[in-house]
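Structure ticket #2291
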Amino acid sequence: MTMNPELAKLGRSLLVPSVQELSKKPLKEVPPRYIRTDEDPPFPSHPNPLPQVPVIDMHKLFSREELERLHHACKEWGFFQVLLLINHEVSTSLVEKVKMEVQEFFKLPMEEKKKLWQKPDEIEGFGQAFVVSEEQKLNWGDMFYMITLPTYLRKPHLFPNLPSTLRETLEVYSGELKHLAMKLLEHMGKALGMDPNDMRVLFEEGLQAMRMNYYPPCPQPEVAIGLSAHSDPVGLTILLQINEMEGLQVKKSGVWVPIRPLENAFVVNIGDIMEIVSNGVYPSIEHRATVNSVKERLSIALLTTSKVSTPASFMESRMWIT
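Resolution: structure written out below.
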């Protein structure tokens, strides 16, 4: 199936300065444009211990009990951490290479990064997403975003011009994460009582995008935000935490709950498209990234979405899911 490249333009964004470069200055206060009074406080106090995001064991998902745990996590949270069977789903060595290469990528000199910067009115490349005016408040973080699959939608000035070792590593990682995403989607389809082939029809030839995030130390983390509260306009997002710093929060019953990343695990969340496919059974939940004053935080997210053109008859057939 062919996909219209025009339909793959997932938004546009104005060019903004690099926060990583800004953070290298001896700042004592956050510049006004980064003060986020429009967001909930990043570190609200809680009188009681907060619940934790469910953890799913990928190796046990063929059991009815673990499948029900997955179903419950998707229904009640829209988020979960998935433990991997080491060297089976995604190899340990590949994950470690990704972590190392992403950290080195953000250490590139600014002259090299500029070659990969967003072009005017585009979202792919270095920068921030969905900045639509010069007055808009900004996030305390840089991102590098690009479409990875299908390969013919890759921007010729981005993926081919990445450092060779990073490019080779991400090529493998993209394929491995597509396989992992499809396995998770098929398990979700089974838990929803869908036809076993439905998820493949929807997502097998869909679009995959990659977003690398860098949140530098912030002099006033209590007034800034790394990534604004949002839900993902995709089917499924799989996030790998690059270093040990926390920062991801998910909104559960009106409360922002921090996610403490586990070793050998990915954080997975339901996107808007999956909420539609499940007829609202699996909600696409708001989440955000906070920052700290001590150390940078890095992550890489793989976003999987459906085919751009999905038969109306298929979507109508999903309306029975409850």
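Closing remark: The radius of gyration is 19 Å.
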